[in-house]
Amino acid sequence: MKSNALVEFNNVRFCYGEVCAVDGVSFSLAVNEITVLVGPNGGGKSTLLKLLTGLLKPEDGNISFYNGTEIGYVSQNPSFDMTFPLTVEELVLQGTLPKAVKPFAKYSQDQKKRAADAVMRAGMKGFENRSIGQLSAGQLKRAVIARAIASDASLIALDEPDASLDIDAAKELYAILGTLKKNKTVIIASHNINAVTEIADKAVYVNKAAREFDRPEELKQLLKGGILL
User: Fold this and answer.
1) Exposed, middle or buried by CB within 10 Å (0-12, 13-18, 19+), for 179?
2) pLDDT tens-digit profile of 163-195?
3) What's residue 63's pLDDT?
4) Burial class (CB in 10 A: 0-12, 13-18, 19+), 122
5) Nearest to residue 38, comparing CAs of 227, 222, 180?
6) Which of 67, 91, 164, 209 is deepest in the core (most CB within 10 A)?
7) Cα 212 to Cα 127: distance, rounded to the nearest angstrom
8) What integer best gives the mean pLDDT of the chain?
9) What are phi and psi of 118, to 5 degrees?
10) By the 8 A CB rule, do 189 and 37 touch?
11) DSSP bridge partners of 64
12) Which pTM value belongs to this model?
């Protein structure tokens, strides 16, 4: 494993039946850096995130993790019962819960502080007492990201975080994501090439195989507005 790597994909292969989504994929995620995955629909970006988070298991190859790595996963369309009486603060506090939850235990002052800091970082200050059912799509996405920030996760994986957002909301969201590498490692799968390359430290072009670019701007120039190399 590289000295600054938090995670390494080593010749990873995964197929859905006879169709291989990714094959021979190798790349690494460095500590406190933002890596973006770009590529065509069906190229394997979401599959790689599911492999990373353990939702899928590699058929060949392996994924190596630095000891103690915990992952916070934000799916493309987080599903909630929007009629459930859950506030933004309560949603974010869930991120502070330990794996072994004690029945009827109250949140500590430290947990509440972590949640408050996460709400601030995600741009949701002032929305703490608002029900999730009253949030816009962009506000809900930021609240879910705040929950991931509040957790003990050292790595946050986001799948198309700007899906269903308008241009202004997406711009605000990527500005927030760009600040996360202060104390988190981040991987983002996105079609928004212009936005993600602006905040990324490294880009990975994914189309069944993977190709790393230490200069995201280089990939942006190669694509020139397209999504195929």
Assistant:
1) middle
2) 878 888 888 889 889 988 888 999 999 988 888
3) 96
4) buried
5) 227
6) 91
7) 39
8) 89
9) -65, -40
10) yes
11) 8
12) 0.88
pLDDT at 208: 95
204 — phi, psi (to 5°)? Answer: -125, 120
Q: At 50, give phi and psi (nearest 5°).
A: -70, -35
Instruction: Give me the DSSP letters along the chain.
Output: --TTEEEEEEEEEEEETTEEEEEEEEEEEETT-EEEEE--TTSSHHHHHHHHHTSS--SEEEEEE-TT--EEEE-SS----TTS--BHHHHHHHTT--SSPPTTPPPPHHHHHHHHHHHHHTT-TT-TTSBGGG--HHHHHHHHHHHHHHSS-SEEEEESTTTT--HHHHHHHHHHHTTGGGT-EEEEE-S-HHHHHHH-SEEEEEESEEEEESSHHHHHHHHTT-S--
- Side chain identity at residue 204, one-letter code: V
CA dist 62 and 54 (Å) reads 12
Give the tokens for residue 175. 């500005």
* Closest by Cα among 97, 138, 127, 135 to 114: 97
Backbone angles phi, psi at 156, to 5 degrees: -115, 125
Q: Do β-strands 60-65 and 5-16 pair in parallel, antiparallel, or remain unpaired?
A: antiparallel
What does the block give as tokens for 194?
């212009």
